[in-house]
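Proteins fold reproducibly. Look at a concrete instance:
___
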Amino acid sequence: MYEYEFRKSVEKILKKLGKKNPKQLSIIGNKVKEVILNPYHYKNLRKPLQHLKRVHIDKSFVLVFSVDENTKTVIFEDYDHHDKIYSK
C-alpha cells in the first residue's frame, strides 16, 4: 500500500467540493483508497502527460495522479471535468 498526498490546488478544489457536493467528495475518498492499493491498475494519460495516471469519478470527472516509487507515494495532481483535464 502506498502513502498519498494532495497538491495544494487539489486540496482547495476538494474543500470547495465538500461544501457544494459532499456525496461526490465521498466518492473521491473511496477512489483514493482504491488507487493507493494498486496505482498501476489505472491508465496513463496521453502525451505530453504520459507520466500521469487518471481515474474517473462518476461519469464526467477525472482525478489525475502520479506515483513516486522512491517514497512509495501517490500524489494527486488535479481534479476537474473530463473535457478540461484533457485540454490542459
About this structure: Strands lie at 3-6, 53-57, 61-68, 73-81. Residues 11 and 82 are 18 Å apart (CA to CA).
